[in-house]
């Protein structure tokens, strides 16, 4: 049994804690308020992970330190730097492998499928913040001060808060119209949370992964319309009613809504094809993606179990 320390109890942090506990590992989950899953195999600790000394004490003896944190969208530029610095310093002090859950923001707008070799050319605030985190961690790794890796996924399927889908699927299942600034027919990669966890743990515990970023193995791309149609079929809901909101209205909404304002930077992801190539992680780490229909079925079941109204109550 080895100690694994996880920072953040969002969808990925929680799922990672469960995954490691099921494998018989010692799991310590760190959040500001000590929140997280109630499980006797998971130790929940209330602590500020940006406090380097405190985080170092909690990580002493751990084989891996997992960065599953996710500050509020509009506070990335403020909250990420001290937290990332604390995580990196802690990894250096303790020898724990720093395994970070990343994203695709760092690539900026792209015209071809993204690979791990795609230049980190983001010009927006969020992308630059994530690029600085990875660049500093990689420099420390190459200097021999830490061991680190990062896994990057596209919009999550099966989680709130990191995807457009929570704005789409509940309304689709309820037979309501969905109005968003989205090209409903552009190909888009979706990453299943379960596959994020599998890749994260594999990268943290396989020395071949250290010093590299990895794309989470994800199913073949599908448009938002394709997902909405299939979700409606699974729930016996009416065909989805999807309307594209003009971008100028999103821009205007950002004048008063911080979340809408932050979406301006990533609007390109849903305006044209946004495809991630994840073949490298499959070849090296042996992770294969969950079939999209299986992942979508699980997401629909979760929504219906949470009380999302649907015209019919079953999921096939």
TrEMBL record:
InterPro entries to which the protein is assigned, alphabetical: Epimerase_deHydtase (IPR001509), NAD(P)-bd_dom_sf (IPR036291)
Domain NAD-dependent epimerase/dehydratase, chain residue ranges per copy: 6-208
Name of the molecule in the record: NAD-dependent epimerase
Organism: Micromonospora wenchangensis
Organismal lineage: Bacteria, Bacillati, Actinomycetota, Actinomycetes, Micromonosporales
